[in-house]
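Hi Q.,

Before the meeting this afternoon, I wanted you to have the 2-phosphoglycolic acid prediction in hand. No need to reply - just skim if you have a minute. The sequence and ligand are here:
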Amino acid sequence: MRVPVIAGNWKMNKNIVESVSLVKELRDFVRGIEGVDIVVCPPFTSLWVVKEIINGTNIHLGAQNMFWETKGAFTGETSPPMLKDVGCEYVILGHSERRQYFKETSEEVARKTEVALSVNLMPIVCVGENLEEKESGKTESIIEQEIKALFPKIDSTLAARIIIAYEPIWAIGTGRSSSSQDANLIIKFIRELFSSKYGSKIAERIRILYGGSVDTKNIDEFMNESDIDGALVGGASLNTLSFSQIVKAAKIL
Ligand code: PGA
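Predicted structure with the ligand bound:
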């Protein structure tokens, strides 16, 4: 059985004071909840204070990006060991905003994924099509390219630890989510891609999330689908009441 993941992507929001108050409230709202892995991904500047508050609780820490090198002359970048040092267990990689605004390629995302796995950070790798690609029937080929780019870099012994987030770009921050049935079909397709490369045993262990305008109203539908193992939540993760309701809807116990 795959334990669901609900990850909150705060994006470039919340200063230190705001992060502290958000995560303190969240900690109280989700206290004692089991059967779901709860992850918050604050901006880099808040990782440390957030970690101090969630230490010993059921909330885990994630970052929103990282570089693949360990250290050196890479101005402005953050290394995988630095994320471990501050207490991260997860890292979002290849979010569509990074692919779009910072021109991250699937090959770079694959390189980061390899390094994340090697230092025992759980990568949440984002894939998804834009509106034009959707409308021209290219969804599956885009997803296939993005997923297959990971394969040369992922050893079969570590593949089961990867988390994928299927996030149709047209659904992110628009209030217009995918239908749960459509999302489930794509997520099944992603699982099949992993199965053809690593075998069904490994593919059945990989957690694949949906992301894109997830809220308290649609989370039940997504969680009722056979292959959707949780959600990557943007906007609704900035509201503790909404986020904690999403967490509660996802728990399996
Ligand atoms: P959203 O963002 O929930 O605000 O649509 C999701 C994401 O970008 O991960």
